[in-house]
Amino acid sequence: xxxxxxxxxxxxxxxxxxxxxxxxxxxxxxxxxxxxxxxxxxxxxxxxxxxxxxxxxxxxxxxxxxxxxxxxxxxxxxxxxxxxxxxxxxxxxxxxxxxxxxxxxxxxxxxxxxxxxxxxxxxxxxxxxxxxxxxxxxxxxxxxxxxxxxxxxxxxxxxxxxxxxxxxxxxxxxxxxxxxxxxxxxxxxxxxxxxxxxxxxxxxxxxxxxxxxxxxxxxxxxxxxxxxxxxxxxxxxxxxxxxxxxxxxxxxxxxxxxx
Length: 259
Description:
Blueprint: H1 2-29, H2 46-53, E1 56-67, E2 75-86, E3 98-113, E4 118-125, E5 131-138, E6 142-157, E7 164-181, E8 202-206, E9 209-219, E10 222-233, E11 245-258
Antiparallel strand pairs: 1-2, 1-11, 2-3, 3-6, 4-5, 6-7, 7-8, 7-9, 9-10, 10-11
């Protein structure tokens, strides 16, 4: 039952973020889809220009966010570069009209800020197998690493706006940290702790995620981007323990060049 509730929580967070991002974007710009003008190079309509040319996009971005639930005292910061390509012509499907885009990103800067190492009260066993309360060391601090997200599936919605392009996405990536993440119990220093908890998580973690956002075109082929993602972090049991980060909410701000 506990595992089932955790899975439900993850799905619930994902669905909530996706629906909220889509609803917010569509409220701002209106829900009536628009067909691109015959001239895809219309300089007065940067959104239609990108749509008509099925453009490549690349540019830098910064992410910042916080964990939720049991990880609400975690903070995250990352920065990197994204590359993507609009692959399909405009698909007409009412308010869901739009185009499919495939993208990926790399983040040479990835950091997680967790509570400093501390002690927690747990139940230990003495040499006779009798339980007794004891303090147990727990890791923490700042973790450094890099992240690669090679798969980003994005749907760019078609609207009448000349400046705002809303989107929803689902993605998957991998994170490498210089120390095992997330922090967990450390090895027990007392010989009477049997068996000891080694606290081995993993330097490798996976990051399935989903969310939405907008591109704001301030001129032809240039946009400022704002997005919100729900990110799950898990080692898939590559380490001896897999406490993971069930959910974090991360805001992304970027600058995109379209070709």
